[in-house]
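Retry 2 of 3 after timeout on previous attempt. Resubmitting structure tokens to design endpoint.
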């Protein structure tokens, strides 16, 4: 099947925008994606038609409650959760992770251990470091492998002990793009009797997630990275959420998941959240799948990930052909399925900000710096102050966008 790129692009109004007649090349996707019209429409509709706080006896309040239920149900479909009660929604993955880290460490004893990795974004490191400091816990850090670019299960084994209470690790790196063998890492952690907290923020826009098959206890993502509104979402196993004490105000509900959602929820963004999941399912429909929403999502990711892998390899090959460029991550085409299309590089002479600025002036949007993957640049010995250039495709990216980025990079370092 030919990937329906024209139909997909037509769904995103932002892709047609130009600045002074110059098209926008959105290659800043690892930092945030554009939204399809249905996400913007659903959000606006909620604000205009059903804008009320929850829990009332009147029509807008009842409708607003239905909007939050539908957003949660959509997320349960996206992640493979057994119930919408396992879906916690909040302002960002970072804020939810700090919140849950506090709850999860509440019963831990001084000397208990938490494992973090050097492959993670700081949002899945700093919350654990902070709680470790407060509660006298010990942090163990696992490096990623210099050849496979992922955390090898054997490396995790080396830091697990009978004091390990929790292992926090990433599904895919937001700097190198490499994907961990999450099921294998979860199995090792479980064997040691530890809980697992998986950061799927970078993986969720690119691949099908099945929390049941992975066996993880918690999995976090952010909908603004998968074509939705600015929200963070955490799946948590119902039995665990049930046991965990929440830091909350007294009058609010003790039910899960809402006891972990502080204050009034971002109701209109729940409407956009459902629409973003429906967008992913729609790609599956374009590919001929007519089954339940989760089956359509699965099919959508099957076709989109094949298309994105081609874009990623094209980008890597083009960049590698430029003298002085070093790709920070997997570049072997036979391993392209072990990475998401987030490609970082350095040049031996020109610094990342200079390159990103040159591309920005051609309306090609990319990021430079460490992108909060502090531990990654530290492990690789890359200067934290300068970092890397990061170019990231999404399923609406074209070959032309990639060619434009490669050509502009060549000019920037000439
Ligand atoms: C891998 C990863 N984890 C966590 C985050 C933080 O997400 P949020 O902005 O929702 O807090 C990001 C954001 O870039 C990320 O790339």
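Retry 2 succeeded. Sequence:
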């Amino acid at each position: 099947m030919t990937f329906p790129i024209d139909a997909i692009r037509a769904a995103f109004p932002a892709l047609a925008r130009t600045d002074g007649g110059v098209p926008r090349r959105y290659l800043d996707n690892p930092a945030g994606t554009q939204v399809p019209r249905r996400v913007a429409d659903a959000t606006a509709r909620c604000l205009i038609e059903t804008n009320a706080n929850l829990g009332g006896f009147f029509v807008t309040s009842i409708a607003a409650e239905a909007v939050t239920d539908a957003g949660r149900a959509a997320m349960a479909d996206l992640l493979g959760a057994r119930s919408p009660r396992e879906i916690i929604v909040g302002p960002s993955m970072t804020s939810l992770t700090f919140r849950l880290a506090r709850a999860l460490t509440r019963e831990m004893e001084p000397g208990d251990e938490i494992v973090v990795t050097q492959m993670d974004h700081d949002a899945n490191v700093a919350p654990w470091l902070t709680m470790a400091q407060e509660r006298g816990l010990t942090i163990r850090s696992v490096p990623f492998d210099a050849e496979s670019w992922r955390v090898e299960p054997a490396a995790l084994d080396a830091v697990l002990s009978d004091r390990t209470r929790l292992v926090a690790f990433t599904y895919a790196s937001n700097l190198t793009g490499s994907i961990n063998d999450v099921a294998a890492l979860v199995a090792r952690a479980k064997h040691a009797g530890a809980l697992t907290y998986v950061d799927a923020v970078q993986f969720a826009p690119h691949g099908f997630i099945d929390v049941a098959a992975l066996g993880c206890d918690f999995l976090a993502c952010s909908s603004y990275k998968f074509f939705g509104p600015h929200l963070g979402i955490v799946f948590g196993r119902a039995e665990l959420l049930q046991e965990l004490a929440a830091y909350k105000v007294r009058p609010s509900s003790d039910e899960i998941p809402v006891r972990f959602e502080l204050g009034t929820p971002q109701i209109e963004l729940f409407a956009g959240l459902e629409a973003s999941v429906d967008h992913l399912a729609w790609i599956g429909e374009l590919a001929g799948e007519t089954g339940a929403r989760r089956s359509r999502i699965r099919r959508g990711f099957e076709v989109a990930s094949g298309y994105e892998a081609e874009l990623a390899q094209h980008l890597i090959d083009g960049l590698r052909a430029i003298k002085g460029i070093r790709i920070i991550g997997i570049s072997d085409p036979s391993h392209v399925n072990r990475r998401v299309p987030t490609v970082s590089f350095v040049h031996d002479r020109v610094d990342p900000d200079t390159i990103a600025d040159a591309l920005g002036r051609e309306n090609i949007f990319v990021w430079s710096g460490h992108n909060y993957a502090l531990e990654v640049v530290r492990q690789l010995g890359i200067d934290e102050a300068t970092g890397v250039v990061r170019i990231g495709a999404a399923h609406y990216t074209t070959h032309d966008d990639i060619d434009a980025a490669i050509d502009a990079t060549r000019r920037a370092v000439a």
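Attempt log closed. The chain has a mean pLDDT of 98.
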